[in-house]
Write a structure and sequence with these properties.
about 30% helix, 5 helices, alpha+beta, five-stranded antiparallel beta sheet
């Protein structure tokens, strides 16, 4: 499995939110997606997004100028189980309070998910509410076995 980390900046209010998260976490990343499957020149991804109303699947172009993709062997689940986690939680709301709670590291609000928390839960990581995009990226990259696989298909150009 692969996880994509967003390092771009969207226009408007979304861009302010991107910058705020990157500033608060001292990281280039403001969002993350579980990469499920390639589709033509894009990828089917899963995450929880404020803009999309919570847990969802989306087809997106993982432009390398805006996304870093890393391999994920962390957690004790199969790719199928991770996808099933997203199917089971589809439509559950985004946990905006948790994003602002990064300051206090408060616990998960039942039935609400932010991006890195949903991916951590789908990967079987204990206490996924502790993760923001920066700490999830660090966890996935902390072990040499977690580095991007050599056989990763090329990402579509912008």
């Amino acid at each position: 499995m692969k996880v994509a980390f967003y390092k771009g900046t969207r226009p408007g209010l979304s861009g302010i939110f991107n910058r705020l998260i990157r500033w608060r976490t001292n990281s280039p990343y403001s969002h993350c997606e579980l990469v499920v499957a390639p589709i033509d020149d894009a990828h089917l991804c899963a995450s929880s997004s404020l803009e999309d109303g919570g847990v969802r699947f989306i087809v997106t172009n993982l432009d390398p100028a805006r996304w870093d993709v890393v391999g994920s062997a962390i957690g004790a689940v199969t790719e199928r189980a991770a996808i099933e986690w997203f199917n089971d939680h589809l439509g559950e709301p985004y946990d905006l309070a948790a994003v602002f709670g990064f300051l206090s590291r408060r616990r998960h609000r039942e039935g609400h998910w932010h991006c890195s928390e949903s991916i951590g839960a789908a990967l079987g990581i204990p206490e996924p509410w502790r993760f923001d995009p920066a700490t999830l990226h660090a966890a996935l990259c902390s072990d040499p076995a977690q580095s991007p696989p050599d056989d990763m298909p090329p990402l579509a150009p912008a």
